[in-house]
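Hey there, shall we discuss this one?
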Amino acid sequence: MNNSNPVVSIQNVSKNYGKQQVLKNISLEISQGEIFGLLGPSGAGKTTIVKQLAGLEAPSQGENFILGEKMPNLNLMKKIGYMAQSDALYAELSAKENLDFFAALYGLKGKEKQQRMKEVMEIVSLNEHFNKLVSNFSGGMKRRLSLAISLLHKPKLLILDEPTVGIDPVLRKGIWTSFNTLKEEGTTIIVTTHVMDEAEKCDRLGMIRDGQLIAAGTPEDLRQQTSTANIEDAFLAYGGA
């Protein structure tokens, strides 16, 4: 994996909210075409990291670079797909109208827009619900629509904060299949998760605890280094628990 031109470079990043330090001197590089998982319990700092990479927050110290340019950067944000933990959807509109709205924001037009809307709805298995009001969607369907929206403009970097929460196991498997397809097409994907079996599916993992990066490597490397049978035990071993 060539890291001479990383897609993501986090350099000595810390973040404070008042007196509370939520990130402590994190440095990390992520390559093109890699599924990188940020693994850690709720409140560990995962969402703060991805919000900075999506350009929604700035670090208190240190710098974040995406595709060689410092974040936040408005032009770069067009090359990023971001799916937040809470769904940013318009409940009073249909799925199609939501897609239409966000596609226009991304500058998609005409046939390309229509084609792309169909493609992303197929990826998340929602094509039968195109004209349904989002207010009638289940929680899992809303997550899937949010994912579809983040894929609309074929971003070079896809940042997904707990993307499969509330999605049933069969669909989750299908969504991970689509992640691997995107990866093969050169998309870099960052996924935050606290689900251990999802962590195993990532090419590399960064383990986060109390705002610190406690380990990074392939799932296999992390298990070997800690002489553990699974990622959960490896995480506990690195965390000193």
About this structure: The longest helix spans residues 169-184. Residues 8-238 form a domain with the Rossmann fold fold (CATH 3.40.50.300).
